[in-house]
Each structure stands twice: as C-alpha cells, then as structure tokens.
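Support case: user asked for a sample of complex input and structure output to validate their parser. Sending the pair below.
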Amino acid sequence: MEKACININELINVFSIKQGSIYQSDKLNCFFVDFGGKFARYNCLSLRKLKKVVEDIDIDALLLNTHKADFEVVTFNGCEHIYLLNACEIVALKELLQGTFTMFKLNHLISDCLHRLVV
Amino acid sequence: MKDLMRIKSLISQDIETLLNQQIKKEAHSSSLYLSMSSWCDQNGFDFSADYFAKQAEEERMHQLKLFKYVLDMGGNAISPEVSGIKTDFAGFREVFEDALEAEIAITQSFKNIYAKCQNEQDFVTMEFLNWFLKEQREEEYKARRALELFEVIGEEGTGRWEIDKHVNKITYSEQ
Ligand SMILES: [Fe+2]
Ligand SMILES: [Fe+2]
C-alpha cells in the first residue's frame, strides 16, 4: 500500500539480494524493507531492532524442534509489521539486514572522507 | 546518501554493545559488593561491611554514568539483568581476594573498550573513559591495600578484628 504513496525514484537502494531489498529515503529519513511480499517502512531504531530480532533467532533449534512448525513470527513491540518466515527466509532476511548495515558503515566512512573532513 | 545511522548516534554499534556490557559488569560489581557487605556483617566485621556497602554504591554510580553516556550519545542503554552473585565466602580473607580479582577484571574490561575506541578513532568515548581508567587506579589500589593488611597484621589472635578496624581507613591520594 505504502508503495503507492512514495516515489520509488527517490529511494536509494542500500542493499539487495535475490529475495528482497532495502531502500533509504533521504527525504523522509527512513528505510523501506521490501521482503516477504511486504513493503514496510522503518526508522533507524526499528530497523536496528528488526536486525537484532532476526539475529537472535536460533535457526538450528527451529529446524530441530519437531514439536513446532518450522515457521517463526518475526516482529517486536512497537513494530507495525509482522513476518511469518520459514528457516530459509530467516537466513535470507538476516543476510539482507547484515548487508545493509555493512553498507551503512561504508557510507559512513565515505561521508566522513568526502563531506566532513576539512582538508 | 545521508548517513542516517550516524545522525542518530555518535557512537558506533560495536562501542554501544561494549558499553552496555560494561553497564552490566558494573551492576554485577555493585551486587557482589553488597553480597560481601552482607557476609561481613553477619560474621561480625562491621567496618568491612560498611566499606563494601560504600563500594556497592560507587559501582551503582559507575553503572549510571555509563548508562547516561550511552543515552546522551543517542544509543540504546540497556538495563541489565544480574544473576549468579556469590553469597558465601570461605573466610574473611577470601572476601578481599575476590574483591581485588573483580576490580582487576573491570580494569581489564575498560582497557579492551579503550582499545576498540582507539581502533575506531572514537576519541569522544576515549575521553569519557579516561575518568574510569583513573577510577580503576584507585579501586585496585584500595583492594590491594586491604588484602595486604592480612600480611601486615596477620590473622592470628585478634588479627581479624584489627584488620577489620583498618579497612575503613584506606584512602588513596595521588600525591
Ligand atoms: Fe566500577
Ligand atoms: Fe570498582
């Protein structure tokens, strides 16, 4: 739904994998996570929370536990979005988020060199 | 592309994680000292009980100082869970041995954070940590001096009673 309200051209693709992408909007100071059939908006804090929640999932336990479905609900307090993901999707989302945060680090280094350091 | 994460917070996530771990360690120290205070009180070492109660309060202050810094820099400060506090000690001397060991571990921990800051060129946090490095000088000195009383006075006869009386008088001055 939100996809219709924002101009996709103004979004910067931070990181992509086969299963999804994460974009940044410099105008709205926020991020959009395109994953699992959802196009969801996050701010700095909630994107970090999402990463932590995904990283904290014990994938081995999820696969080995026979009393539970191999799905996991991914969400956190204050998050407007809920994902129901299987183990493969969780691994993919984790990769997507970790790649994104690596790009943030890289962007930080570049910003420092280009704009912030007075020579 | 805007550097949104940096706009939000002065410290990196790695440093934030380390500082949150340190918050937990200070909380642990505080609980441990309180536990030592309880043991000393129950065994009749009133001055040492006071000494450790004061130390417990100081550790709580350290925890809050770190907590405020993380928040002020735009990070997420986490209120720690503390568990596994030792409540029983084999003897009066062991309490002081444990206290010194705990302070050494804390000094080591601050050195590690400092090294990471140096690596990241986070001079702002390094400057903040200077206060703690100096504090550790005093903390280790006091813990070491207290333990030395066991050698100087000896535990025989009224020795422990004498040691207890002296523990509260240990002070540190740079000059
Ligand atoms: Fe401390
Ligand atoms: Fe201490």
